[in-house]
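Exercise 7. Given the components listed, write out the predicted structure of the assembled complex. Treat all entries as one system.
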Amino acid sequence: MESTEKSLYEGMFVLPQTYVREDQTAAFALLSETMEKFGAGIRYKEIWAERPLAYEINHVRDASYILMYFDASSEAIAKIERQFRITDNVLRVLIVNPPKDFCLDTFLKEKEAQAKEEAEASAALEAQEEAEKPVATEEKEEVKA
Amino acid sequence: MRSGYNKRRRRLDPILKKKTVPYIDYKQVRLLQKYITPHGKMFGAKRTGFCNQNQRQLMVAIKRARFLGLLPYIGTTVKD
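Answer.
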């Protein structure tokens, strides 16, 4: 008898960096297609990090880490893990229960706030650069004259 | 005369003391790197000063990070 109760899980997927950099959408599609096949609903996904591996896995030295939060039944988790274990271009899969205090909504809000701050900071930087640019060109013109 | 057992006061749990980290997670690689030797071995509770609960969390986090290739099973750690 299969239970239909779904709960929140945290998944970390390790993929070769070259593969993800070549086609990011294809990498995400590879993961999300398998998840959807087993009835998992993805709530959040991002490239968590790109870093060298501490040890070589399948002759790969650099990896991209994709973090996902999704709802799934406990039966589906075993199937998803099994499927990813035999999938090419997926080096490691770790699916765990999030910690007790973890709340996805607050996590998403924090991420949104972070993204806003970053966007504002980058906009301010761009504005600064633009403000500085004409001055530099004027100076050059003066030198020429 | 000194008594036979160790009377030294135990250090306060650094995580509980600071209250900056709600839980020890496998994604906090920089934090975890503080609690392994250059050869990749975990420090014991006596060295870390963690309470039982946090030491267990640390153990699980380090093992998960090792599996994902974030920390080495053996050998030097990768610098960011």
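Discussion: Helices of chain A lie at 17-22, 24-37, 74-85, 104-144. Residues 38 and 76 of chain A are 6 Å apart (CA to CA).
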